[in-house]
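User: I'm putting together a small comparison set for a docking exercise, and I want a reference complex before I start. The sequence is below, and the ligand is magnesium ion. Could you produce the 3D structure with the ligand included, as structure tokens?
Assistant: Of course. I'll restate your input first, then give the structure tokens for the complex.
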Amino acid sequence: MNPDMILIRFGEYTIKGKNRGMFEKRMLQQVKRAVASYTSVHIRQTFGRIYLELNGEPYAEIAARLKDIFGIASFSPIRKITSELEEIRRTAVEVMQSLPKQPATFKVAVKRVDKQFPHDTQELNHLVGGHVLHAFPGLKVNVREPEVELRIEIQPEGTYVFSEVVPAAGGYPYGTNGKAVLLLSGGIDSPVAGYMAMRQGLELEAIHFHSYPFTSEKAKEKVIDLVRRLSHYSGVPIKLHLVSFTEIQTALAQTEHNSLIITLMRRSMLRIATQLAEKVNALGIVSGDSLGQVASQTLSSMNVIGRTTDLPLLRPLLTMDKNEIIRIARQIDTFETSILPYEDCCTLFVPKSPSTNPNLAIAMQCEDSIVNLNEMIAEAVATTEVMKLSPEKPSVAQTTEEDHWF
Ligand code: ATP
Ligand code: MG
């Protein structure tokens, strides 16, 4: 049976944080956007919770959307009925029946706000609990650690019955923890890093380096597709900055220190990312680095590469193993796109044995030997192409355009 309402719970932050008001406002905006196409849904916000009155709109579809909204800790489908004992008992059994998995233990938790209701909390506990036990042979009461809590709230306007608690994405509402840029390569890791950063409340603008015509148009489309997929979770469009890296990469590849090519490329990428971040008022750089995964992600490499920027380098995947990352990539639906076999700029000119322990002084010497490296970096920043992407359709934005999502 379609429930009558959905109760949405936020994370703890909304209760304790200083920014509770702002979080709740963003949360409400996100929920409104997610259910906008279900025109009969009525939204109510009270005491750090949101209630959706469904008015016949489909629960399963709306639940699927709510699961992906950052900042929602969990939600519960609710039946709303008249405050009559028999109806409450019957609905209690139906609600228990509708659980995805039948529990071995339960308890009834009654809240009687409407004092006109003829039975007190204790009485109602027994009257409903006994009825449910009778309907489910084998089910037991466990007051301390029940698998399921059957909640009954007697309110003046009617009675709410619910038990299922559906876990949602958690984290913080999108954009409530500041803004960063995301280095997005088209591989498996960086989209997952972007998802995790967004879930923690970061607003993101993506940066991708391509070496057109060495890298194909297909490789660019792949990254566009990944940003679109990420924008499903932000709920608002995400900007993608496409940076031409061909000239810089070609210059760096001339170095006699072949094993340092990747280190040098990463250092230039970070310089460009830093300048772009400053342009868009982003205060950090997110990457898909995972400690030790490849030569450029050893601690020693990270040290030499990271010195090119003053901005905090955020690495959500640092301590995660590849299987864990792949599991999330599948779950957020970026995996299949990520494994498409198009060339990434970093797979060109790959040295036979990239250094796992690069020398900072030598890396700096190599850079000094390229007389116009800084000009090339400035040129790459200036000629960056910007796209604004949402799940449905693309639109080309001006580089200078100031956008405020909230
Ligand atoms: P991914 O699966 O994200 O490509 P990876 O394991 O292949 O990661 P690397 O190729 O060493 O790792 O890249 C490390 C990180 O550097 C990436 O996660 C990404 O954040 C950034 N990066 C690499 N190549 C690019 C690129 N062409 N454009 C933007 N960022 C890049
Ligand atoms: Mg890669």
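Residues 394-406 have pLDDT under 50 and may be disordered. Residues 261-279 form the longest helix (19 residues).
User: Thanks, that's exactly what I needed.
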